[in-house]
């Protein structure tokens, strides 16, 4: 699939203080600051020609991914998803360029396939055999699928109210499914109680280094698919924020590589639901001010994102912002996208269209800018949530 010596990864480092950690050992998050660990690469003399054009998956970027040996890659063909122009919505909103990165084309129907392919591959490389994850839905299905493909064990801890398709896929992939009354934060507490003896490796969002690296490939693909000219603004549905952080990391790596100019860095806009908006609260008031409730967009019900400090930094660093939209508007926009563009998107993706409408009116987005919306998954799994 890719050449034998496939990675330039050489270390991990703490996102807070840059203290190094070994990429050859099992790591979770930094012991110094209880912060996410980021992967470092030797980017010296790496050219665009290093991209494997024969590989039609995210592994085309293997040299800037953390799996060191090709034999450890656990892949179902994730990545290299379509980048589409939304012509009818663009006409309606009177915008020049409206792009749509459609992650529903991934295995298991969401962008979680990228992160879990990478995390399971690295777990295999490090000799890990038993994984556990708290999930709002899609991440659990992805972990179950990739563990099945790798011959590893998966335990998925999921809210009871999650739509049935998410539960069924975990069971069919052979995972041990544990249901919990509450939100993903309650599932995380259940994971901690199940893992007191350390028999599982915890794949929680941003509490291990490698899901981020899989999500990062969305950034590389966006740049390549747009001929190395990035959008002016990217709207991203933000729960745990791994994809937002990953794309920001990818763009910074490409600047160091000389593949894109520093002046072409997009603004990031984090979009949440009014039912659960900790990123919005912390961005504007420096604290989680609002209670969190379940959402039609399951993936947005994340009360305490582990990487909220890094998310806030990225929004500020890119002159971006954060915005919350109503549950009713999310449902209405699922219908609008379906009827105008023929795509049944995840409610998380539909939230972006409502955010765009608001930000065009407030002139925080200009109508002549190049705008990209990132749909995280397929709406078919969420039909139980929709009226």
Secondary-structure map with pairings?
Blueprint: E1 9-14, E2 20-21, E3 37-41, E4 83-85, H1 87-93, E5 97-102, H2 112-125, E6 130-134, H3 138-150, E7 153-159, H4 164-172, E8 176-180, H5 184-194, E9 201-202, H6 211-225, E10 233-237, H7 242-257, E11 267-273, H8 278-285, H9 308-317, E12 321-325, H10 327-341, H11 347-361, E13 370-375
Parallel strand pairs: 5-13, 6-7, 6-9, 7-8, 10-11, 10-13, 11-12
Antiparallel strand pairs: 1-2, 1-3, 4-5
Please give a structural write-up.
The chain is built from eleven helices and 13 strands. With 387 residues, the chain is α/β, with parallel strands linked by helices. It has a domain at 83-110 and 210-385: Rossmann fold. The strands form three sheets. Strands 4-5-13-10-11-12 form a six-stranded mixed beta sheet, sandwiched between helices. Strands 8-7-6-9 form a four-stranded parallel beta sheet. A three-stranded antiparallel beta sheet has the order 2-1-3, with no helix packed on it. Helix 7 (242-257) links the parallel strand 10 (233-237) and strand 11. The protein starts with 8 loop residues before the first strand and ends in a 12-residue tail after the last strand. The relative contact order is 0.14.
Summary, kept brief:
This protein is α/β, with parallel strands linked by helices and 387 residues long.
